[in-house]
UniProtKB/TrEMBL annotation:
The keyword Glycosyltransferase does not apply. GO terms for biological process: endocytosis; protein transport. It comes from the Eukaryota. This is Adaptin ear-binding coat-associated protein 1. The lineage of its organism: Eukaryota, Metazoa, Chordata, Craniata, Vertebrata. One of its GO terms (cellular component) is clathrin vesicle coat. PANTHER family: ADAPTIN EAR-BINDING COAT-ASSOCIATED PROTEIN 1 (PTHR12847:SF15), ATP-BINDING CASSETTE ABC TRANSPORTER-RELATED (PTHR12847). InterPro entries: NECAP_PHear, PH-like_dom_sf. Keywords: Cell membrane, Cytoplasmic vesicle, Membrane, Phosphoprotein, Protein transport, Repeat, Transport. Belongs to the NECAP family. Residues 7-100 form the NECAP PHear domain. Involved in endocytosis. It comes from Pygocentrus nattereri (Red-bellied piranha). Its main location: membrane. It is found in: Cell membrane; Cytoplasmic vesicle, Clathrin-coated vesicle membrane.
């Protein structure tokens, strides 16, 4: 018998989020949101957090069309997909990668 299909549940939707491209770390120093250009985000849209099985997905989507801009699977927290910043509880680092790069 085939395995039961896993349903995707929506855990949270934030309708207005900003994304900033941050440079690679030069040292083990903690990351600070104050070092980013907070007044000029690289992208804005909505964030949807979903779950399928034991994995959560943080999805960044266009506010109007719903087109996926990027996503990060979160298999465990704390982990490599989501990192805190040292100077804020509002900002965090989301590690995304281009799955089409081969």
């Amino acid at each position: 018998m085939a395995a039961e299909a896993e349903y995707e549940s929506v855990l949270c939707v934030k309708p207005d989020v900003s994304v900033y491209r941050i440079p690679p770390r030069a040292s083990n120093r903690s990351v600070r949101a104050a070092d980013w250009k907070l007044d000029t985000p690289d992208w804005t849209g909505r964030m949807r957090v979903t779950a399928r099985g034991k994995v959560a997905y943080i999805k960044l989507e266009d506010k109007i069309s719903g087109e996926l801009f990027a996503q990060a699977p979160v298999e465990q927290y704390p982990g490599v997909a989501v990192e805190t910043v040292s100077d804020s509880s509002r900002y965090f680092i989301l590690r995304i990668q281009d799955d089409s790069a081969g």
